[in-house]
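Per reviewer request, we include the raw input and output of the structure prediction for the construct analysed in the revised manuscript.
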Amino acid sequence: MQHSTPLSATIEGFQEVLSQIEGELHESIVGLDEVIGGVLAGLFCGGHVLLEGVPGIGKTLLIKSVSTVLGIHYKRIQFTPDLMPSDITGTEVLSEDESGRRAFQFTPGPVFSNVILADEINRATPKTQAALLEAMAEAQVTVLNKTYPLPQPFFVLATQNPIELEGTYPLPEAQLDRFLLKLSVPAPSPKELKEVLVRTTGDQKKELHSVFQGDAVAVIGSMRELVRQVVAPEPILDILVRVISLLQPTSAEATEFTKKYVRFGPGPRGAQSVLLLAKFFALRDGRIHISVDDMKRACIPALRHRIVLNFQADADGITTESVIADSVKR
């Protein structure tokens, strides 16, 4: 993965590492190909991922497996209504040294890790959710006017249950916008469910191994750099700008579908996310430039959580996915 190697060899190296990671993950995860691809896209694009799905379909196992296969540090934070911001970031603790001197010392919280599982993030209060916002946006936390950098890579995978909404605090749009992409985790098919039962109720347990022999942090960093080197041709950029305009109800180019159902459309960060995701898809397919198909594939996961629909959409059963599909089709 060094820059001195020819570009084709570097791309092949990227594909090989991805293939190894996916192969190792499938030792513990049955199915979920799209979700695994999306999680790896978030990691190698340098963003964060929101996973939505009912309990018991493998979200937590997937996230834990990712950290094991990458060989980087992992922490789980279970979000509850009584969780405080200091439970995430850490706090100043009064300590005493051997000479009897007392001083405040910072004790880091679980956010000081490479991979963070923010489990059921919508169960915590907005104040606690906001404690994660600075960490996600700037890779640092501030406690009592002191700023502490977070370890790199820093990757947040948050989960939420779409069904049980009683006693939850929906994430505000500003915080949703911090997630590079949102993935919907489906229930297993009958064939996949049978395989899950065979794997999880027997006495054979498969051990996961890290795919990186050397410095995992350096390899992840070089793979992130390579994603950003993928070329975005100007005609593709023009198409992307037009798609974003079609999804803005206040835009002169907004479609009737958008005007009827959308309250707020995606902003510049949404367009950036689509482009980064498209670059990852191109690189995964062995190309150094993105195509229209890459951009189309990136639109729904990158934009579905950045569009706010109105009451009319709810009444007519319209989803953000259908609104995005309509604009992409045009």
